[in-house]
Amino acid sequence: MLRLRLLSAVSCLPVLCALGQVHAQSSDNAGGVETVVVTSERRGEDVQTVPITIQAITGKQITDLGIKSSTDLSQYTPNVAIALPAGAGNQPIITIRGVGLNDYDTNNAGPNGIYMDEVYLASPASQTFQAFDLERIEVLKGPQGTLYGRNTSGGAINFISVKPSDDFTGNLHAEYGAYGQYQLEGALGGPIVDGLDGRIAIVKNGSGGYTYNALTGTRENGVNNIAGRAQLQWKPTADLSFLLSVHGGSVANRPAEYRHLGALDPATFAECSPQRVASANSDCVDLFGYGTPNKFYSGAYNRRQHLDVRSAGASLQGEYHLGSLTFTSLSSYERDDKIHPEDTDSGPNRLLEIDFGVHSSDFTQELRVSQSGANYNWLFGLYYLGENLRQDQPIYELLDVDNFFGPGAGDASPDPLNPNPLTATILYDRSKQITNSYAAFGQGDYNITDALKLTLGARFTGESKSFRYDSAQQVQVAGIDNFGPVMPIVSNFFNRLSNQSFNWKAALDYRVADKAMVYASVSTGFKSGGFNGSFLSTDPVQAAAQLQPVKPENVTAFEVGTKTTFFDDRLLFDASLFYNQYRDLQIFVLTPVLGTLTEANVLANARHAHMMGADINLIGKPIDNLTLNVQLGLLQAKVDSGETISVDLLGNPVTDHAHQLPLAPHMTLSTSADYRLPLAGGNLDFQVNAAFKSHQFFDIANSPYLTQRPYWIENARVAYSFDDEQWEVAGYIRNLSGQKYYLDIFDLSSIGFFQGIMGEPRTFGAELNYRF
């Protein structure tokens, strides 16, 4: 059915172009829809003139919508999903048009690039930074290799901060809401001396948490983080400028707690059905007999350690204009350290606990030269990335088994041919990965006629990785909490991989009328191979097979679209259709280890997969004070029938029927209405928005246990701003209907439970904003 809908949409595009010829008018009408200037193609352009699918969110919209981190974006960007498999403060899994990597290991960056002021954030753990003092956010869909330093096969998300200027500007944001949630944000910038401007910004977030801990009587899932950014811009001459940016942040709160979903029948310990597990009154339990809490936002959590995340970085951008040429140099350094003591089993017992310890540091250097003429634009660049990443992640399994199955139940069996599946074990998991990536890239536009433009781009990428891995274990030998010597499993494993790729882009866009454009493009993308990052089999032979690197993945992406405005700019209509053909798509699965109750991660390749769908954006302004917005995403993202979706622990492929890719719902929808009413020396703004996601899976095998049913999220905000537009007071409600939903679900049914990452409940609050 989705294929039929897309074919119907394709046939409508010429009709839309004809409407554009009739209705497209001048943008000088003050009552029209406002558009945004973006820099997605490395130069300032009206978003309606850029021939790619791009969504821009302004700084004011970021405040109004309550976007506080990169993970908040997916509610407002159709065909974009952002999941947190380890909770807030940890790395997200970002999927754009079905393209993503459902792997929580820090050493495997996904296929979508995240940029902060043009700096690529190499470490996935650094991608949940606070969104503060931003000018805008740009979400680009499709491969972005010919204009960006780091090759990204799925898309890119650009965060652009407010820059220093010659004018004194600043803002203050204070917010307080339900569950003791608060945010304080402030920024100040302006001239320091002649030719030198500066800006400093800081944000502090805190809350008591929305999840009740029945074991302690306290609240969980609170936040306590702080971040800051300082910038200096120096212009020694009219043609030369330098921008220095230094930033840092820390997270120091209890780790996110999950919803414990029992998976075993309490009488027989047989696996419960999916319907029984998902029931609000489920009686299913885990291996130690702990069941599903009656209330959605509650549990009995025993771990009391704090999450500790510290990040810091700096970048220096220099720009020199020589006639019509612009030379740019961008250097950056980023460092992240994290210790995450996860209560993995989300229960009161020591069934499964993990300490995620990660350190990463990376350096990037980008050099670009560009030129713009009356009929052309071109850019050429060189890029280098060097990353050093270490993981130290001990795992604690079944430590309380003696309390439930009798003294000595967790002791290791003396017979290696008949191991005790209930053995209490501490596993040590350490790895080090060094990545070096370099690229040469370029793109040029040429106006063949006043209406027709040709775009060509190319990229060469070379990437090498070295990976060192060690694992060991201690087993219980003489009763609870008594462990034998450390026994190596994999000692000093070392391997390298090196991949190279040539990618390209070709596009045509045709201006049917002053404000009606159609375009078509084909591009290719590439993601290098990688290694299983952690938590491998305890069998040395199986672990050695898992440590073999996966192949690089390649995509060919096709897109056609239109961008039009009608009726004196009061109606904006953008639409695009896309089809992505993947080869050797990298996938991530969890596979049981034979003879034990544990499971091991497997990173593999699916030989063929495809994504097809549509992005539609409709903005209307029927009257001066009312703006309506509808954004629709349609998507079919599947591993092709008969292709590999998994591997066994010896690396042998397993084939199956076609499967929907994780975090790729068939339909996503975002709607909003904004009405401004002049009132008593100011303006009263009424804003409502609602977002819909259809049914989605959280794993590649489409397990009926790892799903989320369709759901809506509604939000409302009422604000009063004074005539000078400097002061604003507002009240808001988010998740108005109190929808209970999951952002991700992880399968740990081998020891009797599923781990659900809950979406936030209904919240409400008030805020004060001041801008000058």
Keywords:
24-stranded antiparallel beta sheet; mainly beta; 772 residues; 6% helix; globular; 55% strand; 5-stranded mixed beta sheet
How would you describe the overall organization of this protein?
- There is one protein chain.
- By secondary structure, this protein is mostly beta strands.
- It is 6% helix and 55% strand.
- It has a 24-stranded antiparallel sheet that branches. The chain has a five-stranded mixed sheet with strand order 3-8-9-6-7. It has a three-stranded mixed sheet with strand order 14-13-18, with no helix packed on it.
- A hairpin with a 2-residue loop joins strand 11 and strand 12.
Quick structural gist:
The chain contains 5 helices and 43 strands. The protein is mainly beta.
Topology of this protein?
Elements: H1 2-23, E1 37-38, E2 45-46, E3 54-58, H2 59-65, E4 80-83, E5 93-96, E6 112-116, E7 119-120, E8 134-141, E9 155-161, E10 169-177, E11 182-193, E12 196-206, E13 211-213, E14 218-220, E15 224-237, E16 240-251, E17 259-262, H3 274-278, E18 298-299, E19 308-322, E20 325-342, E21 352-372, E22 376-392, E23 395-397, H4 402-405, E24 425-447, E25 452-475, E26 487-513, E27 516-527, H5 540-546, E28 553-566, E29 571-592, E30 599-623, E31 626-639, E32 644-647, E33 653-655, E34 659-660, E35 667-679, E36 682-693, E37 696-697, E38 707-708, E39 711-722, E40 727-734, E41 742-748, E42 753-758, E43 763-771
Parallel strand pairs: 6-9, 13-18
Antiparallel strand pairs: 1-2, 3-8, 4-5, 6-7, 8-9, 10-11, 10-43, 11-12, 12-15, 13-14, 15-16, 16-19, 17-42, 19-20, 20-21, 21-22, 21-23, 22-24, 23-24, 24-25, 25-26, 26-27, 27-28, 28-29, 29-30, 30-31, 31-34, 31-35, 32-33, 35-36, 36-39, 37-38, 39-40, 40-43, 41-42
